[in-house]
Amino acid sequence: MTNRRLLFYTHGLVGGGAERVWALVAAGLMRRGWDVTFGVDFQDGANEGFLPPEMKRVVFGRGHAGAVSAIARYLKAENPAAAFAAVGASNLKLMLARLRSGWRGAAVLSAHGRFDAEPRFLGRLTYRATPLTSRWAARTVTVSDDLRAYLIKTFRARPDRVTTIHNAIHLPPADHVPSAAALAARPDIVLAVGRMVPEKGFSTLIEAMALVKPSARLVLLGDGPDRQMLEARAAQLGLRDRIDFRGYVSEPWPAYREARMLALPSWTEAFGNVLVEALGHGLPVVATRCGGPEEVLRGGKDGRLVPPRDAAALAAAIDDTLSDPGDPAPRRRRAEDFSIDRALDKFEALIAEIAPS
After folding, report:
1. Neighbouring residues of 76: CB distance < 8 A, sequence distance ≥ 6
2. Do 31 and 156 fall within a single domain?
3. 215 and 328 share a domain?
């Protein structure tokens, strides 16, 4: 195709998994020769490092109406072959801008979570608009087959316009994966990574830590509105010396290299980036049955699965995993199913299918 211009758009490169994935995909397509511009409503440095310094950037503005107008002007002036939106109201704003501009390129929306994990009014409105937006957009990309089925069943998305492309995950070099003996020699460190909001289930994980063997320690990477409450709960349970609250870390890889396992206690999870990151580092994982984890872990073949909000079941699975962390090699092979290159191949195939020639 002659037009190789692409726009990737999200609200801002804040410290979230979906924003990181969007930056990784945009950067990867640029490396493959696409003319990529990354658009945001505001600048934020948390995930900026995943974009090449030479990538073209555009800031549309924080006000929703102003951002829609700015995106419409951009689409009309630059005429990209395709524009991709991600996270919350960004999908809705791209569609409004497309209608306003008269642009004829391919608008691609994306869903990275379920309705109950979206706290903002416009984000929730975007889900309710799915019956229309999934028909107006060239495609809606979901990060798992579970989320695709959810959008179709719950929000009447048009099935032939919704496709799954699993998240692109940054993996360490294969020679960084420990041997089984090296992993078994690590201390009993349980790693958990995520935003401190209710649906991530960290309150259940802290309660579980009070039930596991005393040698176990929890390293918790992330920040958010629940942090103070979680720290207070840890102190109340006498776990102040066994839980390390490290805050948000843009480069979490050293924590994976020191941990013996990873726990994901979410109530709802459309995919589970941290599961793949852990598998890529050879770590065993314990996760809840909440949508995406079953898909990533192939129903329990690649890690232990427990019910959400069940501290006793989570504690038992953590104890079992710490006692026998197993062989890292099969886990690494599973993680490679979600490599950046595999995701880029699927994005390029999608562009070839929908973009005007």
Report:
1. 101, 102, 103
2. yes
3. yes
